[in-house]
Structure prediction request, 339 residues.
Amino acid sequence: MQILQIPEISVIIPVFNAASFLQESIESILNQTFSDFELIILNDKSTDESLEIIQKLQSKDNRIIIIDKEQNVGPANLRNEGINAAKGTYIALMDADDIALPTRFEKQLAVLKNNPEIGLCGTWFTFFGSKKDKIIKHNTDPDAIKVSFLHSCNIGNPTVMFKKEVLGDLKFDNDYVPVEDYDLWSRLLARTSFYNIPESLLNYRQHNNNISKTKIDNVNRSVRRVKINQLAQLGVNPSDPKIDFYLNAVSFKKGLSPEEVIETIDASKFLISQNEKSGYFNQDVFQKHINKNLIRTVRNAGSYNLSFYKHLKNKESLLFQKINILDKIILYFKSLTGR
Prediction:
């Protein structure tokens, strides 16, 4: 198939020992209804048949460009290299074991072209493989997506398509692996709006891999850093002794003591005030996010007592009014029994 010298989209796929699923993944890109793209596949010194599979497919389709690494550099560095090499106006990301539905590019491109304020477009996606298929439905409203990033990454990385120009000097940071996508997109949110197409346009493969405790600890540390970095937009210093309470205000944590819940409520008031000054988040969406989080935090406190209940009722009446009647009754009886 012949393509224009400068394709509209550059697709980037990092590959490391993905032979089992690679052909199906690549073919799902080659069979897109929108065909004006280059497909940059970066082989990270695979020791299986990945390179042979890519070369075989390249011999049949000259849209494929192979970058074969002599040393293993990891997916974050591979994506950065792919973005630097990309000629397209738009960049589409893809993983080597997932399957893109045929209209993915066509629909994402339409969103980005018709909405100049949107610089990045994701889609809903379907988990498949080791468990029962499940559609992940992320927020679609740009303001809601931005606020939700305070809690977790609200974009499926292999569903992402973005305008290359909005990225500027930003890139994936290897220090945040394996949540380098959460880090990059949370920083890009300061420059442009995000949108998720409310339709599953990618099948995201799950594997029966046992994740070690070390890896879980690394993930948790990196996620915490990303959240703290976002709070800097509201004037919160990472070394602030109350940093945990600011984090708890925007990202749910269960099992807090009554004293910790009260500190978290106080921290939330500061954040709401700071955002009102800066306008970084949509104030209404931000406040609703925090209120919902606080109510959930109260409901899932580690213990209760009457002084805690009285404090919520008398000193935090605005929040207390938002708690539904059944939860208030449960809260009262738990406080009576000291549970």
User: Anything to note?
Assistant: The chain has a mean pLDDT of 94. The CA atoms of residues 199 and 294 lie 31 Å apart. DSSP finds 14 helices and nine strands in the chain. The longest helix spans residues 258-278.
